[in-house]
Amino acid sequence: MPSYKAPVDDTLFLLRDVLEYERYGNLPRFGEAPLDVVEAVLSEGGKFAEEVLQPLNHSGDTQGCSRDADGSVRTPKGFKDAYKAYSEGGWVGLDGDPAYGGQGLPHFLAVALSEYTIAANLAFAMYPGLTNGAAAALATHGNAELKQRYLPKMTSGEWTATMNLTEPHCGTDLGLIKTRATPQADGSFAITGQKIFISAGEHDLTDNIIHLVLARIDGAPAGTKGISLFVVPKVIVGDDGSLGARNGVACGSIEHKMGIHGNATCVLNYDGAKGWLVGEENRGLNAMFVMMNAARLGVAVQGLSLSEVAYQNAAAYAKERLQGRSLTGPKAPDKPADPLLVHPDVRRMLLEIRAFNEAARALMLWVALSEDEALSSPDANARKLADDRVGLLTPVIKGVFTDQGFANAVKAQQVLGGHGYIAEWGMEQFVRDARITMIYEGANGVQALDLVGRKLPKDGGRAITAFFGDVSAFLAAGKDDAALAPYFGPAKAALGQLQQATMWLMQNGMKNPDNAGAASNDYMHLFGLASLAFMWARIAKAVLARQAAGTSDAALDSKLTLAKFFAARMLPEAGACLARLSSGAETLMALPAAAF
Ligand SMILES: Cc1cc2nc3c(=O)[nH]c(=O)nc-3n(C[C@H](O)[C@H](O)[C@H](O)COP(=O)(O)OP(=O)(O)OC[C@H]3O[C@@H](n4cnc5c(N)ncnc54)[C@H](O)[C@@H]3O)c2cc1C
Predict the structure, then answer these.
(1) Ligand 1 and 150: CB distance under 6 A
(2) How does pLDDT run across 207-233, given as a tens digit for each residue?
(3) What is the distance of C-alpha 161 from the center of its chain?
(4) Domain that holds residue 497
(5) Domain boundary, last residue among 282, 312, 333
(6) What is the pLDDT of residues 190-200, one digit of tens each?
(7) Tell me, what's the pLDDT at 448?
(8) Which of 167, 358, 373, 441 is catalytic?
(9) Is residue 80 within 6 Å of ligand 1 at its C-beta?
(10) Residues 60 and 181 both lie in one domain
(11) In the listed set 105, 122, 154, which residue is the last one of a domain according to the structure?
(12) C-alpha 262: how far from chain center
């Protein structure tokens, strides 16, 4: 059976030493969250993940969800009690608005904690995760009445929420949405249509589920300009907050799928269900984007989480399993064979995962802290810069972390050999669970297009220019320090490659849009590699400072080796990305359709 230990110490090191946590002290919510409070929350939440959620991960996968004839859905044994404990512990509303009963802690703290809960049990973590995203959309675009009616119970976790975009004929291309919304005399709308693949669409964890649904008001223009957003509760909520009649939405079936079996993926049939408009008519995509962006960052975390839990179990196995002898002579002569860990190729697999995880955690926390800055910095310019950074890096980390998360789960599985393929060891579940993260919340190909097509050119390239400025300034400040050179040099080279790739896109993407599409995946991965190299440079600098102060330890010292491993054995891929993307669209588009 696999196990999991929340990497609280690493999160704290990254916050304190690498990301200079005190720099965020001017943000309103950070007064309530000095580092000792952060540590207490992460330790307590980490314990919950390890002791309550992780033990339900394998059983939840084996049992899955089941649907009864009346359309009700049962989650796996233990989920209901765990959810009750999770919501009663105040974890759902950790960063929720105190006006609706939230704890008002900074947003990054909820993100940091979500790494642990997801690693322990992704299928479970999706129930509250979706609720948080829906609450953010309602808080931003809902009117006072809607907020008052729904947000308190979503914040406390008494109700969960869902995101309803996908229909049978329409996934990526939301302009094709057919679900109808017919205005009613009382100001509500009758929602009719079918949504598919709705995560947490029906379950037995709570008495009510709040669906956020994209639909087209009768007579609305075709395409994305005619889509509106509605809140549609499973059970109608009275003016006094009491639960009334069942609404006209029912779960038609649940999907039988590759992974995340403990999370119910539902077909939801809307048959004149009562819904209320959120935000303006025909501006629904804009309102839903608040939830979609939150969900994209949440899914990025899923990639890291699965990579981390897979690493922990593979590393433990490699230390125990005796197989073969070291190429340089026995390392455990008293045993019948040496542990797997002596073999360079086994180390390669483990180190590739670990060197990703530790820098990815830093990048995730930097983005999460930037979200806090974007939401609440008293300085308007700082808000704008942070918002740009989050917008730019969201598709990068969604695409790169989840591609890498899956690849790393496969690598970790490989470390276990045949046992990795056997259910009992849990590795095959990590592989199956990780696979969906590359697909939902905008498939990764669409993230790459969002990056090159929307995020780069936005506001005349303001965000990418600022990003280049941030990285260059950091690296320039250390240019005369020989101790930093092994870490800063590779980061500088990767930045140069990313700048070259950006220039190539500017020159060739406009000329032929297929060049931009053909370059997008490599560009996104090059961006990811350059960002991770930047994080390794920051981590190395912080470790060297700790060594100079005499406060380092073995765990921190090992980061310098990991940084060098990353530069020597993973960063060269940046050059391959640059070479591939600069070859243009020609070889991709040359074959006629009939030749496929
Ligand atoms: C387990 C699970 C849970 C889900 N949960 C939810 C949920 O809670 N709510 C919800 O609304 N949806 C949910 N989805 C749906 C999911 O978001 C979609 O499946 C996903 O967005 C892709 O849409 P699609 O399946 O229709 O694929 P398509 O849109 O048909 O795309 C197929 C492939 O073509 C590529 N592609 C499509 N268009 C383009 C383009 N213009 N340029 C380049 N490449 C393109 C895509 O990248 C993809 O690789 C879930 C799906 C699953 C399987």
Answers:
(1) no
(2) 999 999 999 999 999 999 999 999 999
(3) 18
(4) 461-589
(5) 282
(6) 999 999 999 99
(7) 98
(8) 441
(9) no
(10) no
(11) 154
(12) 18
